[in-house]
Amino acid sequence: MELFETMLQHTSVRSFTDQKLSHKLKEQLFLAAQSASSSNFLQAFSLIEITDTKKRKMIEQIAKFPIDNGDNGELYIFVADLNKHAQVLTLNNDSLEHLRSVESLVVSIVDAALAAQSMAVYAESVGLGICYVGGIRNDLFQIKELLDLPELTYPVFGMFVGYPAGKNEVKPRLPIDSVVGTNTYRTLTPDMIDSYNEKTTAYYQQRNSNIQETNWSEKVRQHFESPRRSDTVDFLKKQGFVF
Ligand SMILES: Cc1cc2nc3c(=O)[nH]c(=O)nc-3n(C[C@H](O)[C@H](O)[C@H](O)COP(=O)(O)O)c2cc1C
């Protein structure tokens, strides 16, 4: 399949076959991740491969996202990482002040996300399936302990990667003209929302599994009806970031 078609066929995969990824393929995934663009060439991310079954189970428990009884697929954790840069500055007796800023944190989160998505696109181009796991942030302090995360790092998300046991239907995206503006920001209008809700209602009713009476607006409302992961700022402060 052409890369473009593969990208448009993306769906998150939440169950994998028992086929293992070869050493070579894993290496290619890591190189694909590392080849992403990086703000000011800081390369402010790290990748942690989880091979310890007990650790994987604990991470899945934190994320409330158990996969194939911990047996199939690989789990990788993407970490926004300014610790490496702190080491460079410390070795030169430089101040860490500007490393601790929200702007630096954003840079490192963006770098981690770009690396992850480069890895995801490569994975899907060779027939693998992926699913991001933001649920690891349900308990940042426990994740820090499990992974020995040092100061100035932040676990952004995990990613399952493996050979798909099955694939879901593609979820229809927002209309492109609500996402792409020309010269100015394009506002999402009530009409656009209505027509997208119709599309997503049909998607949720007609898909093969986990059929639901809902639509995109309802999903958005549910998502924002209560606070989520309110210990994030506390965690980031403890990791050495200054707000
Ligand atoms: C940063 C991020 C975190 C995510 N975390 C989870 C998660 O914890 N559990 C889960 O089931 N899906 C997770 N997903 C997958 C999204 O739910 C999924 O991408 C979205 O519903 C669109 O579906 P699709 O990927 O099949 O197109 C995450 C996706 C992203 C980008």
Automatic annotation (TrEMBL):
It holds the Pfam family Nitroreductase. InterPro entries: Flavin_OxRdtase_Frp (IPR016446), Nitroreductase (IPR029479), Nitroreductase-like (IPR000415). Residues 9-163 form the Nitroreductase domain. SUPFAM superfamilies: FMN-dependent nitroreductase-like. The keyword Oxidoreductase applies. Keywords: Flavoprotein, FMN, NADP, Oxidoreductase. Belongs to the flavin oxidoreductase frp family. This is NADPH-dependent oxidoreductase.
